[in-house]
Each structure stands twice: as C-alpha cells, then as structure tokens.
Write the structure tokens for this entry.
Amino acid sequence: MEPVLKIEDLTKVFSRGGQPDFTAVSHVNFELMPGECLGIIGESGSGKTTVVNMITRLLDASGGRITLDGEDITTAKGSRLRKAYRKMQMVFQTPTESFDPRRTLGDGIGESLRNHGMSAADAKKEVSRLLEMCGLPADFAGRYPHQVSGGQCQRAAIARALAIRPKLLICDEATSSLDVTIQKEVLELLGRLRRQAGADLSILFICHDIALVQEFCDRVLVLYHGEIVEQGIPDEVIRNPRNEYTKSLIDSVL
Amino acid sequence: MGEILRYEHVDISYNQVLTVRDVSFTLEEGEILGIVGESGSGKSTLIKAAMGLLGPSGMVTRGDIWYRGRDIPDLSEQEILKLNGPELGMIFQYAGSSFCPIRTVGAQLYEAMSEHEPLSREEFRQRAVDLLEKLRFDDGGRILDSYPFELSGGMQQRVGIAAAMLLNPKVLLADEPTSALDVLVQKQVVEEMLLVRETFGTSIILVAHNIGVIGAMADKVLVLKNGEMVEYGETQRVLNAPESDYTRKLMSAVPRLRR
C-alpha cells in the first residue's frame, strides 16, 4: 500500500540577518498510510506547526521531500498546489479566525466546491449535507462566524475541510481552544467521520495533549527541538517511553 | 485555622445581566480552593469581584464577600486599593503581559512594593532576592535585572507568582495561571504555588479549566456552570464521586492518560 503522505528528511532553517541560523525542524521522516491517524506531540517551539506549515506549503522547506499521494509537492506552486489542496485540507486551532468574518459559514464551506466547478445550487445542497454530517442544522449556512460558538464554528471548519473529500486531513491543535465537553464532542465527530471514510481519509493530528493523542491516534511521533525523538503506538510509547524527554513529558501530565 | 474569605449568596451582573448567581463558599487560612467550569461559566468574574476588578459595567448586585470582617463590595475604591497587594494578591494567565515590556522586572516590582510601604531600593532588592531564593529561583538578582521578554513563558509565570508574594498577601487569586503553559512547565508552576502555600501559609483560589491542575492542588473544588454553583466539596470526593450530572459530564469529557 502506498502512503498518502511521505516525509523524507524534512528540514527547516530560519535565517535571520546578523543572527545565527535557527533550525526549527531537522531531518524529519515519517509516512502516513491510508486510513491511518498519526499524532504529533511536543511542547511549544518543538516544531509541530512548522512541520505542518511545510506540508501545507504555507512555508518553504529548507531541505527534504514531501510526497502527497505519490506526487512530490515540496516546491509545488500555482495549479499544482491547487491540485494538492484537493487532496489535503486543514482544520486550525482557532475556528472563528479561520473563517472570513464578512462572509457566512455557508460561503466558506461551499467555496472549494464552487472553485472546483460545482453550480451554486448544487453547492448549496452539498453545504447543507456537510453541515448536517458535522452535527449542525443546515440553516447554519446563513450564519456568520461570530454568530456561532467556538465548538459550532469548529464543526463548520471540519465541514469545510471535508467538502472536497480530501485524502488527508490535517488538524493543527484543532480542539485545543475548546472546552473539554465541546472538545469531546468534536473528537467524537472526527472519530465518526473517520470510521465512515475508512481508508479514504487519513488524519495528521497535531496536539500537545498526550491523553488526547492516546485516545484518538493509531501512531504517535514525539517532536523535541525539531527532531523526532520517539515514535510508536501511543499506548506503548506512554507505558514504556524509551527517550528521556518523552519520559519527562509523560511524568508531567497531572 | 480560621476563615479568611467568605462569599455569601453572591450575585454579579454585567450591564444588568446576571452572570453569577447565588454563589456561597468559605476559604480557610492556608486552603486551596479550585474553581472549575467552562468558558463563560463565570469563574474569572467570581474572583475579580473579590479584588474590585469587575470594571465599570460589572457589579456585585446581591450578597456579601467578607474578608476579615469587611464586606468588599461595600468598600470605597481607596480601601480596595489598600487591600489589593498586601492582603489579596492576583496572578493572571499571562503574567508576562502584565509587566511593562521596556522596564526591568526589578524596577517594576520596586514600584509596586513602594506603593504600599516606604522602602529603599537596597531594602527592596534584599527582600526580593530573599523571596526569589525561597521560591527556588537559581539567580534572583539576574531575574530582577531582566526585562520580561528575556524570560521564558514559564519563568514569567513564576516571576508573576513571586511578584504577588512580595507583599505577602493572605490570599492569592490565580486566574488560569498554567493554561498557557506546556505540561512540563505547568508542573513547575503548580509546584511553585504549592511551595508558596507551604512556605507562607497563603490561601489560594485557583481558577482553572484543567481538572488535572485542580486535582493536583486544590483541597476543595467548586464547579460552576452558567454562573451557578453545581457542586462544592472536597476535591477527591468531587472528582471521584461527583454528585451532579454536570460534574459527571465534565469529568467524563476530560481526556485521561492511561498509563
């Protein structure tokens, strides 16, 4: 089976005038298989988001290779990048900020469908279906981001991400800004969507909460100072951490 | 141990909208009370009321907040200013941003302290370094000479706790003091606050949405939902055998590490 996402030797060096270079991500390698959910944990500054930003091409990689569904997208631009975004979609940490404040949730969710040639009427129908799939009433399409709660907005963001049926969903701290009860609901939604999609949807789940990763992911990478210091099945990593840093991370969980 | 702070049937409104309803609890000397609840439940509002920090639109509309025989909502602004600092200390979620960025930590702590008692810079430095040492900072002098941005987030938070403790308040009100921190640093800050209680016998009201932090620190827990108390009792009892449905729901939603 071909991996959906293959990361080889990925490196990011930030150069600042007059100051020494800073290596945020150093020679990271991993693969994500179809239907798999891979968690990345680490503290702030460990490079989690830099890895994601390189994969999503929001940031140029300094070295290494990113292969999405068999295609090298390390330096993809323009139409090639747009094509890549049909296969990968993101859900960000702050749902309200990820929507255009002057447009309705329905506009945001339907945008990718319209961009890919769907008629306005069909897109509207599809938006209703997506909202309901994500546990929101269809009339939420007419609401603005500030008119809904954080949890509802994140559901809408998930609906938006899944609209063009991507193979890869990247969640960067997607539940971190939510209250625990809402976090649980959003995770249950993601879990249900994942079961329904089977091998058609893989998830890259960036999270600083180890307990959540244990609950949700098939495999986990521990990132520390831009390097992968440990990886494996969450239960095994948590019960028998081999790396000192992982050990201290797990011991610190209250 | 005597009681130090008592909320009696407290209602708090913002612009005539009732946001906290009928909250009562007692804080003993040296006790740590945890307040849990989700965003918008009124946690922060509840402790801001004790410091007169509700702002122009907020006020205590019913009930009393007794601090050593004085009813805080009835005090004048002058009296509250005298209370805040030496009697009631506060720690915020982002201690770093409550400092002025262009002055050293020491200069700002001196200013805060000299507001409440006349003292020379030398005396101040001596006392500040002593305190920082008691709170297990490696090099207190260096901290005082640093600018806030030169300290890491966790260090800023620890300095925020030390700053509140300079005036040796009887009660420390901590509003989400560890929420912005990584787990490793969170643990250090939790230990710092426990050390404060052990060293100075300070009572602490800890507002947090992280139930792990509450479990590790609090003697008693108050669960707040939509501004109302749904449960109040010993921490272990509330966390392990919650009586209210809402607390049960809250507990079951907390992701727990299976080790």
Remarks:
- The CA atoms of residues 92 and 238 of chain A lie 26 Å apart.
- Strands of chain A lie at 5-14, 22-32, 37-41, 63-68, 71-72, 88-91, 168-172, 202-206, 219-224, 227-232.
